[in-house]
Amino acid sequence: MTARRALTAVVAAAFLALLPNTAQAAVSYPDPQPITGQQIIHDPTVIPLKGGGYVAYSTGGIIGARLSKDRKQWDDAGNAFAAPPAWWYEYNATGDPWAPDISYRDGRYWLYYAVSSWGTNHSAIGVATSTSGLPGTWTDHGKAFSSETTDTWNAIDPALIKADGRLWMAFGSYWSGIRMVELDPRTGKARAGAEVGQLATRPDLPYAVEGPYIVKHGRYFYLFASYDACCAGTSSTYKIKVGRSTSVTGPYADSTGTPMLQGGGDLLLAGHGRYYGPGGESVFRDHGQDVLAYHYYDGDDNGTPKLGLNTLQWRGGWPKVS
To answer: Long-range contacts for 25-30 (Cβ within 8 Å, ≥24 apart)?
Structure first.
């Protein structure tokens, strides 16, 4: 790409970020795929189960659970845990966990989640395992990683990826943006003395980048992240951006070459029409395709957060929502 074309792309992206939800519809973002049943969800993580069907876990309840047989009809399935583990109350007075991440390796499902309180980085990421992945079957193993008010990062929003025989966890929001730490594959917890790397941030306060998720496609790793403000119904300005790197630990950059450590990121999905503030995303593999899961705030239902699902198409080395 020439310098002039690169500059044009950067200016266009900056202008788009300022547009209201209705104006951004002109970019022709696709609507979420139609679903039925229990659609209410926040920060979804979804996986096809080895025993058949799908499970989605989310912020809300004691890690809220949804089940589906066909990825279209979703039913409320209670919570991942019957009761909050006692250690959660060190970080949250109500035992309310956030932003789970589910994965499968070594014959078990692994569930990571954050326990924190709004506005503090006195936070922890916990880990649990299950042989079925179903709600009510999880064994909690305590803290995998934590942060304190003396740290420059925030231990929330975990996302796991295995690369080159090593296990990594991307995490974080605000407090300098997205970070990464290596885990011990045996315990699923942070390696003793592991360094905390940085993957993405912004030059402007409050460094509003969070909810990371990393996917390997071809020779690149792709970092998805949620930018701007969530959790405000139709006033939410969340949007999903993406960058890529040949190394899981970065550096990540967008298609113009702007590093994600300098505020870069290609806009993948933004609010349009009735669908406000898409974010809290994750990606799962289903029938040979990558599927983006996220929440949006429904303008036709008083800003209620709901489950969005869209297939990702890979074009020219970059993901596109379809």
So the answer is: 25/272, 25/273, 27/270, 27/272, 29/269, 29/270, 29/272, 29/275, 29/321, 30/310, 30/321, 30/322
